[in-house]
Amino acid sequence: MATLNMVQAVNLALREEMERDDRVLILGEDVGQDGGVFRVTEGLLDRFGKGRVVDTPLAESAIVGTAIGLSLYGLRPVVEIQFLGFIYAAFDQIFAHAARYRNRSRGRYTCPLVIRAPYGSGIKAPELHEESSEAFFCHMPGIKVVVPSGPHAAKGLLLSAIRDPDPVLFLEPTRLYRLIREEVPEGEYTIPIGKARVARQGDDVTVIAWGSMLERVMKALEPFNAEIIDLLTLSPFDSETVLGSVEKTGRVLIVHEAPRTCGFGAELAATIAEEAMLSLRAPVLRVAGPDVPVPLARLVDYYLPDAARITAAVEELLRY
């Protein structure tokens, strides 16, 4: 079994699924000749040719619009948007079309489309290169939102996303691309969309995170008896696993790097308040990014939730 980083795991998933299913093709800016901005699609052009690995113009709306048409007529396109901050130009195509075709056609058509995008902060890139705007897409009925937290999850979830009959936004944390290496099996294995993972068992407090924040939470809370949940899918999220943990611990901390106001943590907190209020022994707390645009490089370390903020929040919950 190979030990891979996330770039290699995603590349492996794409290669294996393109070999298994000739309906799968890749579209995006620089995905062919250059292998993508992070080299995630490296080698796929040579293996599958220009008919299945398509270098597109710099036009996100056109890329997604074309992929929607391909998916409606039987193909399985995987779109790469170079950074999540560039996806805003395609917002109309995603919200007004991809998300609605099953409903619009009363089930006669589905839109089996995957949109991959590097997302999140921590690589100290320029403006629009470090966005964490996942909550926008969780608000769209008809779109599934998946966020792997490591190489093993990335491969299994991507295979499930490509095979899903509906559109999936697949967000790959850029900070993790080459930070973590895990054993990743070759060949068939999938991780179900909509199912969270208990990354660490604990009894005193439930900590919910996703994407690159899971790695930070796991390190920060080593001294604590915390149950740590890796959400993996934001929409639809696994409320059963979340609520079961809350009923056990009675205390909840939600950690995400997106801005606090209307971030996805707010939806989690509301669900917990509605469904598990009588289990709570303390208010639900959130550690999140501030309500400002992602700053330039010198301030990024102050923007992201760090170990000090995470441990302070857990200590506050335990004192309550």
Write a structural description.
There is one protein chain. This protein has twelve helices and 14 strands. With 320 residues, the protein is of the alpha/beta class. It folds into two domains: 2-184, Rossmann fold; 197-319, Rossmann fold, CATH 3.40.50. The strands form three sheets. Strands 3-2-4-5-7-6-12 form a seven-stranded mixed sheet, with helices on both faces. Helix 8 (212-220) links the parallel strand 10 (205-209) and strand 11 (226-230). The longest helix has 15 residues, at 6-20. The chain is globular, with a radius of gyration of 19 Å.
Question: Concise description?
Answer:
With 320 residues, this protein is an alpha/beta fold. It is 35% helix and 20% strand.
Termini gap: 46 Å
The number of helical runs is 12
Largest sheet: 7 strands, mixed
- Into how many domains do the coordinates divide? 2
* CATH architecture assignment name of the largest domain: 3-Layer(aba) Sandwich
Hey, roughly how much beta strand do the residues contain? 15-25%
Decide which structural class fits the backbone. Answer: alpha/beta
Low-confidence stretches: none
What's the Cα radius of gyration? 19 Å
CATH C-level class of the largest domain? Alpha Beta
Q: Give the strand order, joined by hyphens, for the main sheet.
A: 3-2-4-5-7-6-12
Number of strands: 14
